[in-house]
Amino acid sequence: MALLSQRAEYLQSFDLVITAYTLLKGSAVHEARWHRIVLDEGHTVRNPDAVMTVEVSKLRSRRRWILSGTPMPIGVDDLQGQLKCLRMTPYDLPSIFERRLMSWSNYSWIEGVQHEDNEQPLLQLLSSCALRHRLSMIQLPPLAVEERLLEPSAAERVAYETLRATLIARVEEFERGGALNIRKAQLESFLMKLQQACDHPSLARSAGERLHVAVARARQEANEAGVPAMPLLQYLSDARRELTGAARERVIEILSPYEELAANPACGAMVPECTVCLDDNLTPTITPCLHSFCLPCVLQCMRRGARTTQLCGKCPLCRVNIAQGQLVQLTLPEAHGAAEDVVDAPATNTNADPAEAEDALGGTKLDALVAVLREQTDRHPKTVVFTHFTATQKLIVQRLAREGIRYASIAAGATQPQRERAFTSFTSDASIGVFVLHMKQSAFGLTLTSASRLVLLEPGINLAFEAQAIGRVHRFGQTRSVSVVKLGMRATVETKILELNRTAVPALVPADGDENAPALANGGTDTAQPPPPKPVQRQLTVAQIVALIRHQRGVQ
């Protein structure tokens, strides 16, 4: 950081300057004219409107390179920001990009599939500017992938099926109203809740039930911090009446999901994500600049920025100055019983059948994870564990602590120094044998060749992300055989996701008969040969999401 504050002439006296995307703004890097700019993990700049993308596109150089293992992790529109940084005229213009490259609607351009006329512009563009290095170009140790299907307990089955029945009822409501296609985001949240329910019974509770408990706790915390509270429905009604234009639309967009949950806590509606902790925003707090964060996050950010005895700071999103008295903590009506009654209740129902009561840190999948970690510790002294969900990550680290297993973890919202300390601890300390990571936050940019085993706690829908996660361990510099264990629950949505993945191009298997292709083990499932490969599935259609929720056969 100190180096980037120097003049451009000083920077250009070096043969190589290495920096981070987040340090570019306002630095002397913009004053220099470079021979070559190399963007590592180029998918970081896939959003053309993001600040980092804009800053990178301003850099002056003769040549521009982008390196990425997943240049299109979601879809073709991920190329838009990267082409902007490469200054690939005219495709760096949004209008040209959308008209020429976004007109096609499927992924059949993948090799081995007949190309259509409207797909040729994309193929021609990639052929002119992209160079693909296959895994076969380097020699890597063997990679073995094993699927282990677990049998849920009776209590887990009841919790899962109760949630699924509720979600199916909601899907049927959408169908009767002809609103399935416009409710795709909500259907995706339903699918995510089912996936979470497979990890632990406590995660099978609907968003509405968790919301009412969290609101009661937040009300007490808000009172202690002196943050004024207001009923959510009253705030929303006032906003609709008093605000106009973009401000009015912004408030309605943020609070509409909570309005639905207030009316029906068991509806399973999608709760907005807190942009600080990346978890469900179960305690919405509105800032004067009309941004919403969960109460603990915004209070913590303000404490960091406080320079006086009065709690004040900056909005975590737009950096506008805000004071504690300007915050509004929104509360929900007690439509389904007083939330205060459950604030101090134990985690389990004391009136329930003891045989059905689940250990708060137990559960079939967490038990299986611990069993995997205790296997072959001489061959695999270090293991990386990936999960898709923040709540599951918290349960994992709590269970490992109880088991006496030393671990490192990068939590949601961790600062760069905290990430670096966790990484150094895992790679340098021989007594730390487990690294617990979030798939969305840590599947990119880490080299973890000190580990030789990787556990995927849930089967992923996006095979590109999954391949990137495995690539943290099975990559150049790895000297030992790598074992990958995928965990899944039988007769659940995870079984259907695994079936769907087998019909897609195996993202983990290098093409063209690569000798480094992984050995696939099925963990006791059917040993029949997989069907002919089809294009990699990156985004599910509405029909596929509904079929997965209903456990329908033959999801395609």
Structure description:
This protein has 556 residues and is α/β, with parallel strands linked by helices. The chain has three domains: 3-132, Rossmann fold; 137-153 and 358-540, P-loop containing nucleotide triphosphate hydrolases (Rossmann fold); 207-342, Herpes Virus-1, CATH 3.30.40.10. The protein is 38% helix and 12% strand. It contains 19 helices and 15 strands. The strands form four sheets. It has a seven-stranded parallel beta sheet with strand order 11-12-10-13-14-3-15, with helices on both faces. The chain has a four-stranded mixed beta sheet with strand order 4-9-5-6. The chain has a two-stranded parallel ribbon with strand order 1-2. α2 runs parallel beside α3, α7 (184-199) runs parallel beside α19 (542-550) and α9 (232-242) runs antiparallel to α10. The two termini are 50 Å apart. 34% of the residues are buried. The model is unreliable at 105-118, 334-358 and 505-537 (pLDDT under 50).
Q: How many strands appear in the DSSP assignment?
A: 15
CATH C-level category of the largest domain: Alpha Beta
Amount of helix? 25-40%
Structural class: alpha/beta
Instruction: Give a short account of the largest sheet.
Output: 7 strands, parallel
In CATH terms, what is the architecture of the largest domain? 3-Layer(aba) Sandwich
What is the 3D shape? Answer: globular
Number of helices: 19
Kindly estimate the percentage of residues that lie in beta strands according to DSSP: 5-15%
